[in-house]
Amino acid sequence: MADIRGGDIDVLLVGAGLQNSLLATALAHHRPGLRIELIEARPAIGVEHAWSFFESDVPKESWPWLDQLIVKRWPAHELRFPGYTRIIPRAYCTVGGARLAERVEELPGVAIECGREAVELRPGEVLCADGLRLRAPLIIDGRGPSRPPMEGAAWQKFLGLELRLARPCTIAQPIVMDATVAQDDGYRFVYVLPFADDRVLVEDTCFSVSPDLDPALFRARALAYAASLDLEIETSIREEQGVLPMPYRETAQGLDANPLQRGEESALLRAGFRGGWYHPATAYGFPVAVRLADCVAHHFGANLDTGLRELALEIASQSRFARLLNRMLFQLVPATSRWRIFERFYRLPEPSIARFYALRTTLADRARILVDHPPFASWFRLPGAGGVRA
Ligand SMILES: Cc1cc2nc3c(=O)[nH]c(=O)nc-3n(C[C@H](O)[C@H](O)[C@H](O)COP(=O)(O)OP(=O)(O)OC[C@H]3O[C@@H](n4cnc5c(N)ncnc54)[C@H](O)[C@@H]3O)c2cc1C
Which of 52, 75, 146, 297 is the residue whose CA sits 20 to 30 A from 277? Predict the structure, then answer.
């Protein structure tokens, strides 16, 4: 007879990554008493890397449960391009992978089972690799992103080194993009997070049409950049890398308009990267993951379908615009000129930039981005929109 467990679980979260860890935290905060089970294929929950985001990316209502996860907050951040440096007085925050795992382990009402792999998911039931069937009225699939290759997408690929310094560093705030570096493999920039006087993350990044990442090359470039900042490295503490999709076709890992699949008195929600809940133009998932976690926690029990449909419609409309920008960037702009698009974008008024990252662009923001965008302007022969500078 099949081994079946359930009956005492209200929500079953499959995959203990970013999305489901945030969901568990938000549900435990807003719905105390709920019985939540979290299953994870790996032997333990938690990752070594961190997730960063702009404070303005997440709604104010989320801070009561989100605040405890922040390991570092800087009041401003910086952008560097060949023509200018801009310091933007908007806070940048980091949530630590270890801190998130610790907090999830402490949550009341949340049972965690590691080393359990899900192989089949449907509304109300999950089949595990060892034949166990787990049942719950609501199943949330947070098994993470699909791996390359993916049709209709370009890639954000990066390798970061967290460095211990022998001498205090003088970098005061995150450098979110330093594009003054040699342009190679699409748009290339370096990302720098000064976690402490003696600890800094230096990440070499490309927005590229190819998912291939040569670790030795990226590592060497990150170290060369650290040397150019005059950082005296004692040791490299940690390395992280990623190849994340930047889709430009609607078919490439998009968001379902109706993300909740209904069964008989049960449901399945595809969440996180797996469900298309991320920003196509940054390949980052944190801000949308927070909004989805809050939405599920607020609407749980009643109006979940409506709440999710409304959020999905909003994110899908924003995502369509972001995909259009990706299409223009990767299909109309020569690889060596892509940095100029970003150089123009970051000259926009600060609130427009903030809304773009938060997936909350207004029609006026969109018009402004497009009119300022040389390939689009030349398509439509907009007078005075400006071309790519020589
Ligand atoms: C190194 C790195 C740094 C990043 N930094 C940022 C950042 O700073 N800001 C940002 O917004 N985004 C960042 N991202 C991108 C994005 O936010 C993350 O990829 C995010 O973790 C996606 O969340 P998720 O929950 O969908 O998937 P994941 O966090 O990948 O979680 C998926 C989980 O499901 C588990 N799993 C998979 N298959 C099964 C199965 N069959 N059964 C059970 N469990 C399973 C996995 O082991 C994993 O724990 C980063 C990505 C990487 C790789």
Answer: 75
Q: Among 219, 247, 275, where does a domain finish?
A: 247
Q: How far does residue 81's CA lie from ligand 1's centre (Å)?
A: 30
Residue 173 located in a structural domain? yes
- Answer yes or no: is pLDDT of 355 > 70: yes
Same domain, 161 and 105: no
Query: Is a pLDDT exceeding 60 seen at residue 381?
Result: no
pLDDT digits (tens, 9 = 90+) for 35-89: 999 999 999 998 888 999 999 999 999 999 999 999 999 999 999 999 999 999 9
Measured in angstroms, how far is the CA atom of residue 280 from the centroid of ligand 1? 15
Q: How far apart are CA 182 and CA 319, in angstroms?
A: 30
Residue 146 to residues 109, 273, 376: CA-CA distances in angstroms? 30, 8, 31
Ligand 1 atom showing the smallest separation from residue 21 Cα? 25
- Nearest alpha carbon, ligand 1 atom 37: 143
* Residue 287 counted as domain residue: yes
* Confidence band, pLDDT 50/70/90 cuts, at residue 301: confident
Q: Containing domain of residue 132, as a range?
A: 4-71+92-146+253-319
How far apart are the CA of 287 and the centre of ligand 1, in A?
Answer: 13
Count of structural domains, the chain = 2
Q: Whose CA is nearest to atom 4 of ligand 1?
A: 51
Of 319, 339, 364, which residue constitutes the final position of a domain? Answer: 319
* Model confidence pTM above 0.90: yes
Q: Do 135 and 270 reside in the same domain of the chain?
A: yes
**129 and 17 in a common domain:** yes
Task: Taking each helix axis as running N to C, give the angle between helix 350-357 and helix 363-371, from 0 to 180 degrees, rounded to the nearest 10.
Answer: 110
Claim to verify: residue 52 and residue 137 sit in the same structural domain:
yes
In DSSP notation, 310-377 reads HHHHHHHHHHHHHHHHHHHHHHHS-GGGHHHHHHHHTTS-HHHHHHHHTT---HHHHHHHHHT-HHHH
